Structures are given as C-alpha cells and as structure tokens.
Amino acid sequence: MGIARISFNHKRAHFIRAILEGIAFNLAHVYEVMSDPHDKIHVTGGLSQSPVWCQLVADVFDREVIVPTLELTKKLPPSHVYQPNSENVTIYNELKPIFQQITTQLMGSYERLIDWQKSQVNGKIETNNR
Predict the structure, then answer these.
(1) Per the CATH hierarchy, to which homologous superfamily does domain 12-116 belong?
(2) Which end of the chain has less neighbouring CB within 10 Å, N or C?
C-alpha cells in the first residue's frame, strides 16, 4: 500500500516509519490468517538489529518479540526481548481496520498498475539522467 495523507510537514523519519508500519500491518494480516498463530515472534535478519522495528512488530502484533543472539541457533537464549507497549497496541488496533479497508479499496488500482507495468517494454520507464 502507498503512503496516505502526505503533507509538507512530513519529514524523512515519517516516511520511514510509514513504510515500516505498512510492512508490519501486512505481516500482521498474514499472521492473523495463519491456522496456528504463536504467542511469541522470533525476528532475525537485518531489521532485527533495529529496536524501532522490533518494538513496532511487538506493538502491531501485540506479541512478545524475541531477537536470538545468533540467527543460526534457536537453542541459545535471546539477546533482546521486546514487550508490546499497551498504548501503542491500542493505537495500532484502531489503525488496522483502516489500513485493511484502504488496501481492499485500492486492490483494483493495484491490479491496473501491474497490468500497465507488464505492458511496458521490459517493464521499465526510461529516464533522462541530467
């Protein structure tokens, strides 16, 4: 989903946060439709090194987030554990249905955009680098 309600007051940090929130909301949607959701979420990879990302995931999912000491072993104790912040959980629970509604309403537009991209030569827009 794109970023909604952009204004001149928004700074780079707002865009980065909005992108991370969008990713977290999409992951939460997949998580919710899983047949066997878990009480804890283990986060690995590059973004696991970001406390902002890990806390955001804990808040959006309303689950404890565990970052293992080493990615290759799950038997070691976690190096960081993030607990959901109840104030943030309340906010994200209010925002989830809005995000899902916007995503649903834009689905047809996304499909049209994908069709347009497929119709272009090599799917690329040529730019003039001056």
Answers:
(1) ATPase, nucleotide binding domain (3.30.420.40)
(2) C
